Amino acid sequence: MTLQNTNRPSLKWRGYEISPVAQAFRFVPFPQFGMIWNRPVGVRVQTPQGETQYLPVYDLTRMLQIIIVLGGLLLFFFLKIVSQRRSA
Amino acid sequence: MSNLENVENENQAETTLPANEEELAAAALETIQDTMDQFMAAADVNAVFGETIKHQGNLILPAAEVVSIMGFGIGSGSGVSEDNKGSGSGGGGGGKTFARPVAVIVANEQGVQVKPVVDFTKIYLTAFTTLAFVTSAWLRMRRGQ
Known about the structure:
The complex is a heterodimer. Chain A has two domains: 1-57; 58-88. In chain A, 32% of the residues lie in helices and 49% in strands. Chain A has one helix spanning 60-87, and strands at residues 2-7, 11-13, 16-30, 33-46, 52-56. In chain A, strands 1, 2, 3, 4 and 5 form a five-stranded antiparallel β-sheet that branches. In chain A, strand 2 and strand 3 form a beta hairpin. The longest helix of chain A is centred in the C-terminal third of the chain and has 28 residues, at 60-87. The termini of chain A are far apart. By secondary structure, chain B is an alpha+beta fold. Chain B has one domain. Chain B is 47% helix and 39% strand. Chain B is built from three helices and four strands. Chain B has helices at 3-41, 45-48, 120-144; strands at residues 53-55, 58-80, 85-108, 111-116. Chain B has a four-stranded antiparallel β-sheet. In chain B, strand 1 and strand 2 (58-80) form a beta hairpin. The radius of gyration of chain B is 29 Å and the shape is flat. Chain B starts with a helix and ends with a helix. In chain B, 11% of the residues are buried. The chains are: A alpha+beta, B alpha+beta. Chains A and B meet through strand 1, strand 3, strand 4, strand 5 and helix 1 of A and helix 2, strand 2, strand 3, strand 4 and helix 3 of B. Strand 4 of chain A pairs antiparallel with strand 2 (58-80) of chain B, so a sheet runs across the interface.
C-alpha cells in the first residue's frame, strides 16, 4: 500500500509556470489483485514576478456527497432521539 | 481402436500438447503483462491531467480522478483414470478503469484559477438515496411506537 505524489513537467504560459501535482494511492495486497486511485491534488504556480503559489484542487462533487450523507445521518439520529423522548 | 493407434495417439499428444501449452502460457503471460502495463498507467500523472487546450487566450488543463481495479487468476491441474490421463490449465481476469472530471485549471491574463467540475446528477442521486433512507427509517420508527 503506497501513497505517492507525482509532478507533471511544468507548463509555461505567458510568463506563468504551472506544475500540476497528482497523488496516487496504490493498493496491491497480492500479485493477482490491485487497485490504483489517482487524483489531482493541486497546482504549483510561479508568477511572472517570481512568486510561488499553491492552488489546491478540491473535489466539490465528493465533498457535497459527503455533506449530504452526513446531514442525512444527523437527521436520522435527531429523529430517533425525538421519537424515543415522545414514547418515554 | 487398436492398441497401436492408442499408442500413436498418446505419442502425438505427448509431442504436441507441451508445445501448445507453452504457446498458450506465453500468450497468457503476454496478456497479463499488457493488462498490468495498462493498469500501472493509471498511476501516472498524465492519466490525471489531460492534454492542454489553448482557446481564446486561455490555457485550459482538465483534471480527472482515475480509479483502476484489476484482478486475475490462473490454475492448472491433472488427473489420471483407468483409461485416460490428462492435464490442463487456464486463467482469467478482469479489470475496470473509471475516470471522472474533477476540475479545470484555467490560465489567462488574470492569472491561474482552479475551477471545480460539479456532477449534479451524482449529487441529486445521493440526496434522493439519503432522503429515502431517512424517510423509511423514520416510518419504521413510527410504526414501532
